[in-house]
Amino acid sequence: LATGPRQSNSIFYEIRTHDIKPAKMKEFLEMVNKYFHFRTAHSELVGFWYSELGAMNKVFHIWKYDNFAHRTAVRHALAKDKDWQGKFISAALPLIEKQHNEIAYLVPWCQLGKPPKEGGVYEWVTFQMKPGGPALWGEAFRAAINAHINTGYTSLIGVFHTEYGLLNTVHVLWWNESPDHRAAGRHSAHEDARVVAAVRNSVRFLESQQNVLLIPLQCSPLK
């Protein structure tokens, strides 16, 4: 019941979240920027960010795969990559407190976007919806997302619906020029009757929500 219509091809996205030891965050980010080209030689990185607000000492990265066989082949190749294992993994693992991954698909009405320019900030919003999947809440959720897009203050990058991990979870990735631009836009949206009505309808199916402000790393394709 937790799954629903998705894109017609087999492409999916792996969302990886790491909790970094607080005293080691700077060291970890420096290592990523220095050595992550060994990892991106094997498969496509969508983006890599660290948390600024809403969560502490976390990094988020998203990988694109053609199908599950593709991911398996990449994981096998990484295990044999001496540069990746020796220069990054062996040094990075002691800096990590916890790792978590999810497999997600883009919702069928969303294509992965890009920001209109570099230099902004990203917002990662996680919605935990009531059990039942898009058949229950999909239409209302889409209307709420579109209402925010129509205000013009923010840019939608992607909407991801989990397949492995905590089900009935939807992650929405937004881009804004700055935290202040986002704050001003949110203030205006809260006074827009169309947004208020769409959100009021959608939250009937919402169990929880978390917002995290993200800063892209130098190595991130999405900047």
TrEMBL record:
Family to which this protein belongs: Belongs to the NipSnap family.
InterPro entries for the chain: Dimeric_a/b-barrel, NIPSNAP, NipSnap_domain
PANTHER family named among the record's database cross-references: NIPSNAP-RELATED, PROTEIN NIPSNAP HOMOLOG 3B
A GO-annotated cellular component: mitochondrion
Superkingdom of this protein's organism: Eukaryota
GO biological process: mitophagy
Domain NIPSNAP: 13-111, 122-221
Protein name: NPS3A protein
Pfam families: NIPSNAP
